[in-house]
Amino acid sequence: MKTFLRISCFVLFAVILLSCETSHYFMVEIQKPAEISFMPPSPRIVVVDNAVTQPSDIGVDCYNGFKELTGYTLQKDTIHQIFTDILGQSLDNTHYFEEVLVYNTPLRTDNEYLAIQTISPEKADEILEDAGADALISVERLLFKNTLNLVGRDFKHFNTDYSALFSIHFRKKEKPVSSFSIENSIQFKDFIDNDSLLIFQEIPQHLLRMSALQISEELAQRLTPHWEQSERVIYGGEDALMKTAYAFAKKEKWEEAISIWEDIYLNSKNNKRKGKAAINIALSKELKDNFISAGEWAQNALNCYALEKPESISKELEFATQYKKILEDRAIHEITLNHQVR
Predict the structure, then answer these.
(1) What is the pTM assigned to this prediction?
(2) Nearest 10 degrees: CA dihedral of 84, 86, 91, 97?
(3) 139, exposed or middle or buried, with CB in 10 Å at 0-12, 13-18, 19+?
(4) Rounded Cα distance, 152 and 200, in Å
(5) How far apart are CA 114 and CA 139, in angstroms?
(6) Which of 109, 228, 241, 341 is most buried, most CB within 10 Å of its CB?
(7) 36-64 b/e with 16+ CB inside 10 Å = b?
(8) What distance, in Å, lies between the first and last C-alpha atoms of the chain?
(9) Which among 324, 233, 314 has a CA at the least distance from the CA of 18?
(10) Per-residue pLDDT reduced to its tens digit, 155-183
């Protein structure tokens, strides 16, 4: 069984100095947990198509400038099979699941493409049993709106809006454990000739496939732990002590840096300076994965800034407020991730 191991956050100390040379920005990579806890972790999953194909004459708009053209259609008969295959590949590419299976037979035979008919617990258990899977991902609805605008003689503007709805089923559960909806769009703009097959079929079909890829990649990211880059700031350079502490931090001598920042926080009469020192301590705690303590120090910074005139600490206050929220989220995510790994 493949196991997803958590790696400590990686700090890229590629420092970009601001003109004032007191605020230094860099990026950290943080691991976000999946939005759902699978039992067991790294399960075998099966993807099923429980949606009805949208009719070819629905969701197709064509314009010549501001004049609407009628009678154009777009076949979507194969997009569901293409989509489930792409979704299965995207989930497999995460290397989080032990195995990803695709159920090739559509479950719906009606024509109510807007209606959602959730799989019964009995049917979900039957499919899970046949596939030897732990979880079932059901495509409940897959809709597209394709807009083509023929601008001038050669310029063509294509736009595809898409929306998809999914549900997750586990064995012996009466209801789906979770549902996900995804909406977005994709565009194509270019000067092309008036080849009608290219304009009305090949490019729109290509956009359908690209939409399917975007949907599948977003769902795969939401269902699995993944890495995201996030910007951080460290303050230094205002005076000799802050400069010294920052020099220690650049060399990753965090204990020496923290000692100086704590002294500034406890003894300085300048609340803005104290707040910056508190933010630096919060950062050092975060880099050691101590998110609760980091959040407390971010709150200490906010308490200091509250004693200053708002116009004098506007940027610092904005960052500290955002940073505290990030740290609170990371603390929650850490608990969730540890639960998933166990």
Answers:
(1) 0.72
(2) 70
(3) buried
(4) 16
(5) 13
(6) 241
(7) bebeebbbbbbbbbbbbbbeeeebbebee
(8) 14
(9) 233
(10) 889 999 999 999 999 998 988 999 999 99
